[in-house]
Amino acid sequence: MPSIQPRVLKGFRDFLPDVEMARASLIKKLEQVFALFGFVPIDTPVLEYADILLGKGGGETDKQVYRFLDHGERDVAMRFDLTVPFARFMAEHAEELYLPFRRYHIAKVWRGENTQRGRYREFMQGDFDIVGTDAASADADILLTAAEAMTALEVGGFSLRINHRALFNRFLARIDALDKSVEILRTVDKLEKTGPQATAEMLATLVSPSLADDILSFIQKEKGFEQTLEKMFGFCDPGDQEARAARARLLDIMNFLAAAGAERHIVLDPSITRGLDYYTGMVVETSLAALPEIGSVCSGGRYDELASLYTDRKLPGVGASIGLDRLMAALDAIGIAAGSDISTQVLVINQEGAPGTELHRLAASLRNAGFACEVFPEPKKTIAQYTYAERKHIPLAVFTNAASGPFTMRILSRRENIEITDFTNLCETAKRELHVSA
Amino acid sequence: MPSIQPRVLKGFRDFLPDVEMARASLIKKLEQVFALFGFVPIDTPVLEYADILLGKGGGETDKQVYRFLDHGERDVAMRFDLTVPFARFMAEHAEELYLPFRRYHIAKVWRGENTQRGRYREFMQGDFDIVGTDAASADADILLTAAEAMTALEVGGFSLRINHRALFNRFLARIDALDKSVEILRTVDKLEKTGPQATAEMLATLVSPSLADDILSFIQKEKGFEQTLEKMFGFCDPGDQEARAARARLLDIMNFLAAAGAERHIVLDPSITRGLDYYTGMVVETSLAALPEIGSVCSGGRYDELASLYTDRKLPGVGASIGLDRLMAALDAIGIAAGSDISTQVLVINQEGAPGTELHRLAASLRNAGFACEVFPEPKKTIAQYTYAERKHIPLAVFTNAASGPFTMRILSRRENIEITDFTNLCETAKRELHVSA
């Protein structure tokens, strides 16, 4: 009798081959895009000292962190994002690296969140950042990379909704509400969830009702990028140097994006604030036209100091994070199979009486010719071997008694058999049929 | 002042881009080999219920496991290998899958081992298994896949040293030492480390000195596969059905390997026992000709029941595990760079006065033409941009004021500049130069 019930922890998942291949295919596409833009991969440990990951800590995130004492009584924790380890990494390795440093990191992170909201406790992020530069060119590159990633993943229509933290802050400064900026940002950040009416009421508890109206007006999108930008700037003091710089920065970014042919994906959306994050400049969220309700699938922004907790060295940067699980769920909901490029192409059928040595000789020849191939290990009934092929989405099966032929090829999708005399013809037919079924 | 010293836990490592790209390249080659043999990928959670991972527990491994109570007071642990989670996975999902199931899983595992022996506490394994069949064909496929993997990784000469557990056990049965098989296996398993003299002495504490000599004689390799096999069989009772079946199995495996052209990599080595593991049939270890002292880089064998802790269903199988960290260290020691195929190919130099829009327009055109490309984000001194390119191993740099040209291309390795009039020529020159530098 088995003594242990096989099960996984709540919020954790197994990935069966179809889903894992879809995930691998998605990761591969992202890696290709990251490489095209000059990002290089890094990796960091899953476990770190808790003080490294949590800093002085005490926030909402801390409660969700998997933290424990290890065998050496060290206070350790599993990473809950890829940004904090990256900050520690840059502080530790800046001398060995070159700046600006463009890295990507696609890996799992862990948070003991409430799973009732459909969240996972083990999930995967794909972060890409350019660290060591304040330039608008780097901001543009992050947005271009995000746009290229969405295009490569064939998610359908999408918008990169961008904004600049300073415009909002300078507007708040003008209405003497800068001291409440955290609460206001947090309220505005929930606009889509709570709706304008409730947001106005919440804002009116923080500022006067008329200023609450101004805030709601400020965060309205106008028709085009420049109209929105001028409306926002109009709410600031026209002599405010910080607001002027933010306006100039957004225009620079937009010009670079237009030059690279990506301006159609960009929306200036003053309601995007990334309220709880540490961003200091441009911020971005990415929404899918087919599934606006799932929220942002790629979010990020510019930060002044990545690693100030760990080093005196100033490391400004810009980056974004792709939520792979949300994106996979979205692709699934839209009905886009991420597709996979690796699975057995040819099954060598094992018939009673066919010499196993000949079957293995044939399989080796087929692999040498580039076909992903396997020998069914036992002479089970043919129908069982067909079923196996169908379950595994193997398109072709081959019967033979000799590696040199003759062969019978079974096209499983059409339930059709083709007689083939020699190995050269076998390869040609397989190639043609795989092309048809691809 | 930074308040936290950036550091990683003992036994844990950061992977900087060069090493991470080498690892990614190694993983990619393994995945291609696995796919060629019909293996499909899966993934399982890093954290599992402790009882799932440790079973009834109490062994040496248990002390090394990262185990703690989570937020819900659940007794959880980080996986310490990929076999136990796979057993749980098969017990849970056998109905959804097809048998025989060929899976691979390349992922990190964690053990709080003594790091003084040069071991890591976070390391990566690449497991591949065929579950749901007892056939010799599957044993052969595991060995063929291992051989193909070593060939693909270009590790130089290597040997798959195989054996069959039953031959050793039936020999022990004949000398009435079967009850001491665990201790004897464990002693023999350390032969390479302790040497024949010490092994003989240790064996003589378990059996009579003359039987100790027999055991040492049994585990000697002879000239060829068949000679070794007959010697081993000669130590067993000739009427012993189990020994006969083991001999027949080894011959079948060898015939399949010969048919597939891989027999030159196989050595029958009676000293290979995988002493502490749960194997019941064929066992294998892989040694590199250039670095025999580092031990096995790919080990495995056949097991009767993968998942008996979790299910009544009988799941016999065969598999092996590649130690990626040991393999990377070996490749490094042998002087074989794993190489990488992704990094920036063209750096667009940012000169004072060159319009950023034109640089981004050019970069977008180069990417459309398939070149991995980045714009240096700020107009720093040319020498600083060259240094950046060299540090990042970027072979080509381009100067321009307009995306349509004219251009100056800098071949960084030769410190040579080429004048180019238009974009078509730019692409052709870049292609040629990248081919030269590849």
Report what the structure shows:
2 copies of one chain form a homodimer. With 438 residues, chain A is of the alpha+beta class. Chain A has an 8-stranded mixed sheet with strand order 1-5-6-11-10-9-7-8. Chain A is built from 15 helices and 16 strands. In chain A, a hairpin with a 4-residue loop joins strand 15 and strand 16 (416-420). Chains A and B meet through helix 1, strand 1, strand 2, helix 4 and strand 5 of A and helix 1, strand 1, strand 2, helix 4 and strand 5 of B.
Brief write-up:
The first copy, chain A, is an alpha+beta fold. Chain A has helices spanning 17-36, 50-54, 60-64, 83-93, 136-152, 165-174, 181-189, 191-204, 209-218, 225-234, 241-259, 324-334, 356-368, 382-391, 423-437, and strands spanning 40-41, 47-49, 67-69, 75-78, 101-110, 122-131, 158-164, 266-268, 282-288, 298-303, 317-323, 346-348, 373-375, 396-400, 407-411, 416-420.
What kind of sheet is the major sheet of chain A?
8 strands, mixed
Rounded to an integer in angstroms, the radius of gyration calculated over CA atoms of chain A is 28 Å
- CATH H-level superfamily title of the largest domain in chain A: Bira Bifunctional Protein, Domain 2
| Count of all domains of chain A | 3
CATH fold node name of the largest domain in chain A: BirA Bifunctional Protein, domain 2
Can you tell me the CATH class of the largest domain in chain A?
Answer: Alpha Beta
Poorly predicted parts of chain A: none
